[in-house]
Amino acid sequence: MSLRIEDYGIIGDTQSCALVGRDGSIDWCCLPRFDSGALFAKLLGDERHGFWRIAPAASPLPGTADPLLATRRRYVGNSLVLESEWELPEGTVKLVDCMPIRDEHPEIVRVIECTSGEVQIRMDLAIRFEYGSAVPWVRRVDGVLAAIAGPDGVALWTPVHTRGEEMATVAEFTIRQGQRVPFSLTYFHSHEEIPRPVDGAYALEHAAAYWDDWAAMDKIDLTEWQDAVVRSLITLKALTFAPTGGIIAAATTSLPESLGGSRNWDYRYSWLRDATLTLSALMVAGYSDEAQAWRDWLLRAVAGEPSKLQIMYGPAGERTLVEREIPWLPGYEGSAPVRIGNAAAGQFQLDVYGEVIGALHEGRRLGLDSSGPAWDLERAIMDFLESGWKEPDDGIWEVRGPQRHFTHSKVMAWTAVDRAVKDVEEFGLEGPVDRWRALRHEIHTEVCEKGYDPERKTFTQYYGSTELDASTLMIPLVGFLPPTDERVVGMVEAIQRELTQDGFVMRYDSTKSEHVDGLTGREGAFLACSFWMADSLHLIGRHSEALVLFEKLLALRNDLGLLAEEYDPIAGRQVGNFPQAFSHVSLVNTAAGLSHAETLHPMSHAARIAGIKPEMHKIRRTSSRSKLRRIFYH
After folding, report:
1. What is the distance between the alpha carbons of residues 149 and 128, in angstroms, rounded to a whole number?
2. What is the pLDDT of residue 625?
């Protein structure tokens, strides 16, 4: 059985990643890419579906803590090198895991070290390609254990003796104080020669140096929550597909939004809805190279006919993300079905047009290159939106019920038009600005008439609905209405009153909305929405409440500083895919907003609408790559 979601940590090489449990077991890993078939899929099944565990061989003693779970664990500095430590009566051992930034082949390096005493260690390696369905052919070649099935192959190197046992590779050995035993697992295409093994000690040192150097680049000290912000930025970098700059939503598929439920989706793809907030988070932290790469990925991915814009793409911009179910995997804690691919890629979501144009506008405002193709794309999107905004859509939450006129979707259509107008006004770009201003006014008027309930003093989920939706919290964040507007205050208070559990914000009331999303069962509180609530409370002047909520959200992080998509207040556990980029992006943006850093898109735009003057905020960017030092004033 898998561990709790929060009992996992992530290691990665910016092209793929692995989840390492507190018990020393890698229970999820897809190679060679984030969205490749998993060779370790125990996370969604059991040991039959693939795992790699290195840990003390001790058995639990009655009345004592389970020695199979690490006593403590941490990341080495500001890196993605993970240390897990076991303190046992017979001694102390430390397992260090990483995935070196690859030159050619993806690798997982694990080194077990004894720091005191003498400890018996056991290694179990069960390789199961294609999500646990393919048992490989294993043979030994020149001291390396090679496992091959179809197009996939991995090679294990270690100095300890291994043997086959029940369709797995195992090793048992004693390690004494001062000794270190390395293991390296290298992926290769089965038609290639078996790669040479990597030096474990060098790989760990090199990986730690890479991440520490990255974390130190262009750093700004703008918040009292710096450690949480830096860890979130590192996690965001870990979810970046380096060859293209695309950023996936999460490292996993089918981790449930409710334990035992069926709301299980594949998040190993790049969502356009994350674009503006991600761009802002990267830029405010000084990571202009990553922001530029993300913006360029966005331009390539969405190139084509605007009416066929998808809500998500593969890490390299792939458009075909066919959804299928994996029947041989029982799902995390019985949460079936397990899904690969995502049918929501074919949905029509009006809000993505606002997010794309918003990201391009934000890039210009923050100094990214504003090339001709970006404006050509905006003009094409605007041509479509002049009539397309009137259509019903599937909404931000990818509901699988009927299309509707979702309030948030119309607000984001307004955002697209508003940013296009500002691109003409602020940057001198050419466009029919008078017509766009009239369109902006038309959309705004309709939303305020049809998406607002004057009796309850709140915006609703869709036109004619009485239900609430946390996505409307974006109304003050994108500047649709100033934070001081009574309709905004009423909406924030209504969501606080009717759409929270233990203070955390639900996306919508899933127990009442089967007719909306086409699904049954409940889900946890959506963490990004809870961060938006903190932003909104701050903007409407309730700063102390915003701080309390933000601190509660920080307390949900696991011991490694990681967040999933949602939190279940009833079960008291993280739920949903993990770690979740949207949660960490929202953390960075909210921390900066509460620290009065008026450089972020949602906060700065809302501040301008409200007439709040941003502070003269000095940002220092220092890059070891460029050796440049620049000072910016906002």
Report:
1. 9
2. 29
